[in-house]
Amino acid sequence: MRDFRAELEKRREQGLYRWRRQVETPQQPDMVVDGRPVLSFCSNDYLGLANDPDAIAAARDALPETGLGGGASHLICGHHSAHHRLEETLARFTGRESALFFSTGYMANMGVISALAGRGDTIFSDRLNHASLIDGCILSRATVKRYPHCDMTALEEQLATTDGHKLVVTDGVFSMDGDVAPLPEMAALCRKHDALLVVDDAHGFGCVGPEGRGSVAHFGLGSEDVPIVIGTLGKAFGTSGAFVAGSAMMVDYLVQKARTYIYTTAMPPAVALASCTSVRLVKQADDRREHLARLINRFRREAQALGYTLMPSDTPIQPILLGDAWSALALSKALEGRGIWVTAIRPPTVPEGESRLRVTFSASHTEAHLDKLLTALGEAQQELPGHAA
Ligand code: PMP
Fold first, then answer.
1. 36 and 71 co-located in one domain
2. Are residues 216 and 274 in the same domain?
3. Distance from the alpha carbon of residue 347 to the mean position of ligand 1, in angstroms
4. Residue-by-residue DSSP string for 110-121
5. pLDDT digit string (tens) for 94-128?
6. Which of 135, 229, 232, 235 is the best mutation target for the ligand 1 pocket, counting ligand atoms within 8 Å of the beta carbon and taking the most?
7. Containing H/E element for 139?
8. What's CA 280's distance to the chain center, in Å?
9. For residue 10, what are the contacts with CB-CB under 8 A and spacing of at least 6?
10. Which residues bind pyridoxal 5'-phosphate (predicted)?
11. Looking only at Cα atoms, what is the longest distance across the chain?
C-alpha cells in the first residue's frame, strides 16, 4: 500500500498542505470564519449576488412549488420545467440557439470535452487552463497538445502540423491570472485550421462584455467564431450549477453523449429558478460592474505603489505574485492577523515558483473595505521584508 501518511507529511514540509475553514455567514465581504470576523477578498461572488435578496426570494418561493431534491437524472425523470426555463434564459443571454444546464462547471467541462473528442482526435489546451478542462482532456482519451499560455504562434504551429479532428479549449478569463484569452486570434486560427473552439468563461460571464455577457461578447464575437461556450453559475451569478451554450444540434449531441450530464442527479429545480433571477440581475448590473472597475483600478495603482507585483489583469481576479509557497503563506497569514482573508494559491494549482495571493473583488466591497486591505498590505510588507514585494 502507498504510504499516504508520508505523502501528507511531505506536503506539510513543502508548504503545500491545504486545509479548510468553516464559514458561518453567507458569502459577503464581512464574514465569520472559524468563529472570528474576517473581511474576505477571496470569493468568486464577483457581483455580490450570492446573498442577493431577490435571488434568495426566488429560491424560497420556488421550494414549495418544486420540492427540494432533483429526484433522478435528467433523462430518467429529473428534468423539471424549471431547468428548461433556465436553459431558455441562458440561451437568450448567450445569444445561442440552445443551452444545457449541468450540475457544476467541473462536470460541464469534463462532459463536453470527453463528448466532443475521443481516441485519434487532438485537443489543443492552454497550459494555464482550469483543472476541469485538463481532466476533461484526460477523460476523452484524445491526444493532448498543451501550448504556452496564450501563445498564438505556438498554437498555430501545433494546429498546422496536426491531422484529424481538432478541438481547441481555453479559459475565457484565466482563473488564477485574471487575464483574458486572445479569442479573436483563436477564432481565426480555428477557422483556418478547421478546429472546433470551446471557451470556458466561468470567470468572464457577469464580469466582462456588455451586460456581463462574457469574453466572447467582450470581443464582439458570436457563435460563428466560438461555437461552444461554457459558464458556471457559482461565481458571478451567485448560485450553483453551470451551462453549455451552442447550436440546438450541439446541445442535442451533448444530451446523448455527455456522461457527466447523463449519469447524475438533476440539480434542485429551485436553484434553477433562482438562477433565472440571477441572469436578470447580471444583465442589469452595469452599476456594479462600474463600481468593481473603480475598486480594481485603485487597488492596482496603490498595491503596485506599495511595491507588490501584480499580474496583467483588469478583471476582478487580481493576484499578488509572491514566488515560493512559503512567501505566499506568510503574506496570507500576516493579512489574517489583521482580519483579512486571502487564500494562498500554491502548486499544483499554479506553476512551481508562481505562488500567489489571489485577491478577488466583489461589487459588494466598498472603498472602506479596500482601504483596510491596502493598509494591511502596507503593514504586512514591513513585517515580511524581502518576502512580500
Ligand atoms: N472553470 C473554471 C475556469 C473555474 O475556475 C472553475 C471553478 N473554480 C470551474 C470551471 C468549475 O466550476 P464549478 O465551480 O461550477 O464546478
1. no
2. yes
3. 17
4. HHHHHHH--TT-
5. 999 999 999 999 999 999 999 999 999 999 999 99
6. 232
7. helix 131-140
8. 20
9. none
10. 105-106, 175, 203, 232
11. 60
Cis peptide upstream of residue 348 (ω within 30 degrees of 0): yes
Cell numbers 508562481 correspond to: 354
* Residue at 16 is within a domain: no
Q: Are residues 268 and 182 in the same domain?
A: yes
- What is the model's pLDDT at position 1? 92
Residue 386: band (very low, low, confident or very high) from pLDDT cuts 50, 70, 90: low
Q: Is residue 251 pLDDT above 80, yes or no?
A: yes
Task: At 123, give phi and psi (nearest 5°).
Answer: -110, 135
5 found inside a domain: no
Q: What is the CATH number of the domain that holds 143?
A: 3.40.640.10
Q: Is the pLDDT of residue 389 over 60?
A: no
Same domain (yes/no): 361, 226:
no
pTM for this entry: 0.96
> Active-site residues: which are they?
175, 203, 235
Kindly report, residue by residue over 281-318, the tens digit of the pLDDT. Answer: 999 999 999 999 999 999 999 999 999 999 999 999 99
Closest CA to 356 of 332, 381, 385, 338: 332
Domains in the chain: how many in total? Answer: 2
36 and 57 part of one domain: no
Residues 42 and 141 in one domain: no
Tell me how far apart the terminal alpha carbons of the chain are, to the nearest angstrom.
43
Say whether 12 counts as a known binding-site residue: no
Same domain, 75 and 199: yes
* pLDDT reading at 384 higher than 80: no
Of the three residues 236, 255, 283, the one that is the final residue of a domain is 283
DSSP letter (8 states) at residue 211: G
Question: What pLDDT, in 10s, does the model give residues 353-381?
Answer: 999 999 999 999 999 999 999 999 999 98
Residue 299 domain-assigned (yes or no):
yes
Q: Which domain holds residue 150?
A: 53-283
**pLDDT value at residue 382:** 82
153 is in an annotated binding site: no
Task: Give percent above pLDDT 90 in the chain.
Answer: 97
- 222 sits in which H/E element: none
Same domain, 297 and 261: no
